[in-house]
Amino acid sequence: MPGSAAATTSGVRHVVSAQQFDRARLEALFAAARQMEGVLAAGGDDRLRGRLLATLFYEPSTRTRLSFESAMLRLGGQVISTENARDFSSAIKGESLEDSIRIVAGYADAIVLRHPEEGAAARAAAVAPVPVLNAGDGPGEHPTQSLLDLYTIEREMGRIDGLRVVMVGDLAHGRTVHSLARLLTVFERVHLTLAAPAAVRMRADVRALLRARGAEVTETDDLRTAVAGADVVYQTRLQRERFAESTGEEGEAAVGLAERFRITPELMARLGPRAIVLHPLPRVGEIDPAVDADPRAAYFRQARNGVAVRMALLAELLL
Amino acid sequence: MPGSAAATTSGVRHVVSAQQFDRARLEALFAAARQMEGVLAAGGDDRLRGRLLATLFYEPSTRTRLSFESAMLRLGGQVISTENARDFSSAIKGESLEDSIRIVAGYADAIVLRHPEEGAAARAAAVAPVPVLNAGDGPGEHPTQSLLDLYTIEREMGRIDGLRVVMVGDLAHGRTVHSLARLLTVFERVHLTLAAPAAVRMRADVRALLRARGAEVTETDDLRTAVAGADVVYQTRLQRERFAESTGEEGEAAVGLAERFRITPELMARLGPRAIVLHPLPRVGEIDPAVDADPRAAYFRQARNGVAVRMALLAELLL
Amino acid sequence: MPGSAAATTSGVRHVVSAQQFDRARLEALFAAARQMEGVLAAGGDDRLRGRLLATLFYEPSTRTRLSFESAMLRLGGQVISTENARDFSSAIKGESLEDSIRIVAGYADAIVLRHPEEGAAARAAAVAPVPVLNAGDGPGEHPTQSLLDLYTIEREMGRIDGLRVVMVGDLAHGRTVHSLARLLTVFERVHLTLAAPAAVRMRADVRALLRARGAEVTETDDLRTAVAGADVVYQTRLQRERFAESTGEEGEAAVGLAERFRITPELMARLGPRAIVLHPLPRVGEIDPAVDADPRAAYFRQARNGVAVRMALLAELLL
Q1: Do the Cβ atoms of C107 and B66 come within 8 Å?
Q2: pLDDT tens digits for range B282-305
Q3: pTM above 0.90, yes or no
Q4: Residue in chain C lying closest to A129 (CA)
């Protein structure tokens, strides 16, 4: 499926933004990821033998890095890696990101880039003679996270059209919910319930986009009611400090507010038997570990799906 | 040898503690490690082809990490690695060790864990769907170090039963000597001489255990006499600050004390021609480098044996 | 070509200094590197299958590390790596470099060493039972950089004899220009123009050596005139602080001075059509990015050539 999942610069394809993917491309990616699950079950294969991936992380994100490296190695490729490119001696000396990318492109067949600045991935893609995969550029995008979130929904529920998705938590600041919400509008009749304290409700530009694209959107601050009838509950990290700050409440009031948006066994009792709970992880308290044993708790399967999705992307870009 | 070297949790085998190993298991491990020396001499093999090991180090221990990684690669496996999981972005955000382990288990077929907290390896093993190998959990255990120590004694001396072993240094605080002393009691008629300043004599619970298991134990603060007739001298790191602090002596007195427990060419002259000197390394001054050229100085062979022992463990857990 | 590129210690060959290489050895290395470019174009090969390289970096130099690792992996070998051996737990505990090298030599078939102290590579080579490759030892040597510089000149120009080479920048402190200047004297009729502010002119001992070896040397502080007729312009990093300090000038004066040694499109107009511009990189401002698109800007090709040169060295030492 040439060209299916990637922006191109001078004929080189990149994964910079989840917004590159239309419905046909997403469905092709899901099919490829599903096939990669089979490859994983069979112990990997050798289709990327002789190919070399560089993981260039300007801020730590061990989970994302290890997931990409696992994906590459499972397909028989190899990896060169830097955990902390902030200390990249050349970066310290004032080298531009563009120069660093040009150099590393001379060492590897593709580059996974994590960078704290929005737009870094696009800048890298603009000069790289090899594919660049954006592994998060600050407040910008983290497309492979959004793609694995969406793949997990499709994988667990069998479809995305017509699903009722509840997004929970700090919807004002969460990069993952903004990106996933936009991607969901590619599908039909998705109903989104945005469950958040008023002070951290979904960002206005995302709400406007959802409405412009015809998504059904409900906003609420009552999670207990919201989960009834939901197919997917997408929980995100609660940052109590931020809640407290945003609401002007402090101490016990903030704790009480966070408690109302927490997923507990009691809340699970209100959720349908075929629904699922997702979370981009890490969690710090917003899902009670007592929920982990519930088969509807899909967040560890979700993390694992990241490997299959990244295998599909790497295979597409490198073959 | 299924089940031979590992505790099990839900059917998954782990290496958490050296105490998991009884005599039969130790002997099977030694045979397997010996075979791995042959594999190394032949340039490695491919028996772990397609298998992926994650090394997850929450504190630096480059030597242990590289030894495990070498073992995995020599058997044709692959490695994903983090040198400094303290900066694991998820750990910073407050993620539990258990969650981190569950995630990384989705990326790899086994996990080598180094963690500063006692009991961390057991906690990891309790939730991991893949084998966990303890590479040191603070004041707790470092089982592969103990196993390579014991393997080296067996490899160099041809047996362990009936040996006269002198342990030297700070026996109050040294994790390696506690673990090795316990493991030696699995064998018969081992005589242990514990050579240490009184202030840092062997920990009472270990002494009690040794006596309960019928080991012959002698304590002394005179290393020069102790080495006469010894088969194995196991030197450990002298921490002069700690000596000084423990004894109330300072400055020259502490230096003099340390000097009395140092291995020098002169001390080697008192040691039998077939005896060996071991040290878990790093050393800082407690073995004179002039001893290195002596064929009885076995500590670099000991370090190298770590690779063969870890190959044997990885092959057992992953095949 | 056994023995061709390496000093030996007890029969083990090492790459410690560029000065190990005479003309015949350099030419053999260039031929091998050229062949490695073909191997790279074909997607690598397997000639180092089963071989293991350790990269041991006591200070960060991600570029050099990744280049070596890429070279090893492109030949089918494997790598164990530490980005920051300063935090090597054993180094913290006071272990000597020699002990660390002996240990790591038990894990790998060759060691790439980066260390802040001059002479560290020679100390390592003196005790290592496996080849040591110097990846920079402080103010000492960085031989693979010099070799890739020279290879690039030969590769781009077709010869080295008789070339007119202009070296630009801080020639007092630059390790790369000292090393390259010495290496160029191995060839015939090379004319060197040393273009630098007087305060940071080429170090006296290097000038003396160049003259002793019969090189034609011109010194100037006028880059615009110097480039006319040049075959190779070797630009190096401008450290304005150092210029300012050295010259006693500050602020605008220092900026003006730096500007006079900068490579700009206007300066390129004075350069011949077949000449090339090199730079060891990273650059911070001493080459205008507007020059990058000029086919005579060879610095990114130069960086890429490092992989082929290191492949040639690794193959020579490990086969």
Answers
A1: yes
A2: 998 899 999 999 999 999 999 999
A3: yes
A4: C300
